[in-house]
Amino acid sequence: VQAQGLIAPDDALALAEALDFLCRIRNELHFRAGKADDVLTDPNQRHVAAAFGDGQDEPHIARFMADYYSAAQEIRRFFRAAAEVWSGAADPAPAPETGDAIPAVRF
Question: The pTM is what?
Fold first, then answer.
């Protein structure tokens, strides 16, 4: 997507980091439960925060959850912008090399 000029390099990196973070959380939840478990309950928050090196006390859990919500918001912003572009609600941007109009995701 970035190579095609559809997303700025900084936005692509932020999106990749957010997706990676959420996937790491999901994997940790699955490893802990021994099965598919995608619910970030209070005990799971404590466990994942500790597994990520944040600690198990309330300030560390709050910081972990702030990071979680920040990553989720980054992903939400990307998909909202993409939906606007691909639905025709946003103007297409010119392709970097050709100047042809292509849908570009800016968020």
Answer: 0.75
